[in-house]
Design goal:
The complex is a heterodimer of chains A (about 375) and B (about 150). Chain A is α+β, with helices and mostly antiparallel strands and about 375 residues long. Chain A contains 15 helices and eight strands. Classes of the chains: A alpha+beta (about 375), B alpha+beta (about 150).
Chain lengths: ~375, ~150
């Protein structure tokens, strides 16, 4: 890896990775100019699943836009819908009952664990190990079953409403979640022994694809990618929202800047999410799950609103410019993977192609969320 | 050179640990559901496509107010009504009766806004999920007809 690269421009060739390639986790296309197995220059090409989500936000009423948010990131959809409802509630001055906020936090964290589990499986599969994906999916299945019983959907949730929730959680859910936490902790130990300790895994990630904190700031990378580069930034801690200040949890930060650090951040985050769920279930107050005077149609006062939340992939921001009408004048979605992905072009110059694909896995890309 | 041998030792140990875990997984019970031979019961809140709810007489509860149509983000509901004369206590009154309720399931995103916005409790989610088809027409549901078929 550290061998000097002899650039011979006359002998380079162009390699297309994607848009239909399993290593890119979706319809992302990477144009790579190769010198043998080394990448001279890489260029990511976006837009294959562009669905005009921002424009739809301008044409639909705020309530009608609810199902769109869960179509951005199909692995951690609840975090995105959470950001949307929080933005509208803050702008319209709606006070959400405490129970509703607790349930939101619990379900978002469950969804974060599910998202990280799937990433874990897919990432190890990128590196050539298939069994961890099966184990991760089995654990994820428990979460999806729980969330299905509550929200009525397994992937594209539409659970949060302006001022509360669609419906309340029952005792079955609370029991299932309490049973899930120790089981998941046991699984995490298993993953640690099976994958983290594996020599092939370590050798393929250690010191590979260094992304400096400087580069993270330059491209606006957030989430586990930035935290793996030593940037201690988590929206839940730095700009607290919802009921997160009530919870006691740590933000895992690693300073190695390599692919292994990003892996470790996510594995530690799962444990922190379990801690939040545990505390949330303990503290869950009784009470209503919807504001008493449920707003019929939402009209935001004229202004410019922004809300950021920490999703499984990083800081997701939604900006709404309102002209006082039933729908937004302009709606901007700041998606974390979009910024995280743009590191790729610069970071993988001079890298071996197999290292570059492992690096892409460690970025945890979800393409529909990049293209929106 | 020492690093080389310790790598070999540590490496083979880590591989053995990994293999012991995968070996133990062999003897765990199978969790896979053998669809289509086995099926799962959908949860109570499962959101399938919508269905009309009938009243005691088997007529749809729907009063054709059109709230669901207006609430739908994708515009997949289209309903029509006719005005009929009915006799109440000897007086002839005009009443709106649902004559057509079509659901274009190709556009539906299963958000549930229609059920939530219905003030008369006339809509519910079906538990149907075996909807795969290669023809577009199979996803244009005539909900009135489906209701009659369910009554019969």
């Amino acid at each position: 890896m550290s061998a000097p690269i002899q650039l011979r421009p006359d002998e380079t060739f162009l390699l297309n990775v994607g848009p239909q390639h399993p290593a890119t986790h979706g319809v992302l296309r990477v144009k790579m100019q190769m010198d043998g197995e080394y990448i001279v220059k890489a260029e990511t090409v976006l837009g294959y699943v562009h669905r005009m989500h921002e424009k739809m936000g301008e044409n639909r009423t705020y309530a009608q836009y609810l199902p769109n948010l869960s179509r951005l990131d199909y692995l951690g959809a609840l975090g995105y819908t959470h950001g949307h409802v929080l933005a509208i509630e803050r702008a319209a001055g709606i006070e959400v009952p405490e129970r509703a906020e607790y349930i939101r936090a619990i379900t978002v964290e469950l969804n974060r664990v599910a998202s990280h589990l799937f990433w874990f499986g897919a990432f190890v599969m990128d590196l050539g190990g298939f069994s961890p994906l099966m184990y991760a999916i089995q654990d994820r299945e428990h979460i999806l079953d729980m969330l299905e019983a509550v929200t009525g959907a397994r992937l594209t949730y539409c659970y949060y409403r302006f001022g509360g929730l669609y419906n309340d959680v029952d005792d079955d859910f609370i029991e299932a979640a309490k049973r899930f936490i120790p089981r998941m902790r046991k699984s995490l130990k298993k993953y640690d022994a099976l994958v983290s300790g594996n020599i092939i895994f370590q050798k393929r990630l250690e010191g590979i694809a260094p992304v400096s904190a400087e580069m993270c700031r330059k491209y606006g990378a957030t989430g586990p990618v930035a935290r793996g580069s030593g940037i201690n930034f988590d929206v839940r801690k730095n700009e607290p929202y919802s009921v997160y200040p009530e919870f006691d949890f740590d933000v895992p930060v690693y300073h190695e800047c390599d692919s292994l650090a990003r892996y470790k951040v996510r594995m530690d985050e799962m444990e922190q999410s379990l801690r939040i769920i545990e505390q949330g279930l303990e503290k869950l107050p009784d009470g209503p799950i919807m504001v008493e005077k449920k707003p019929k149609t939402i009209k935001l006062p004229v202004g410019d609103y922004y809300q950021a939340v920490e999703t499984a992939r990083g800081s997701f921001g939604i900006r709404i410019v309102s002209d006082g009408d039933k729908n937004a004048y302009r709606l901007k979605l700041r998606s974390p993977t979009y910024s995280n992905m743009h590191l790729f072009d610069e970071a993988c110059e001079g890298m071996l192609i197999m290292d570059a694909l492992a690096f892409m896995g460690s970025l945890d890309l979800v393409i529909p969320e990049i293209d929106r | 050179m020492g690093g080389y041998f310790s790598d070999i030792f540590y490496g083979s140990k880590s591989l053995l640990i990994g293999m012991s875990i995968t070996f133990r997984e062999f003897f765990k019970p199978t969790v896979t559901v053998q669809y289509p031979y086995q099926t799962l019961k959908m949860s109570a809140r499962f959101r399938g496509h919508i269905e009309l709810i009938a009243d005691e007489d088997g007529k749809p509860k729907c009063v054709a107010c059109g709230m669901c149509q207006r609430a739908c983000p994708s515009g997949c509901i289209s309903l029509e009504s006719v005005s009929v004369d009915i006799e109440v206590d000897g007086k002839v009154k005009k009443k709106k009766v649902l004559s057509k309720y079509d659901l274009d399931f190709t556009k539906c995103s299963l958000c549930g806004q229609c059920v939530e916005n219905c003030n008369f409790g006339a809509l519910e989610f079906s538990k149907e999920y075996n909807l795969a088809s290669t023809r577009k027409e199979d996803f244009h549901f005539n909900l009135l007809k489906r209701l009659e078929e369910r009554n019969a």
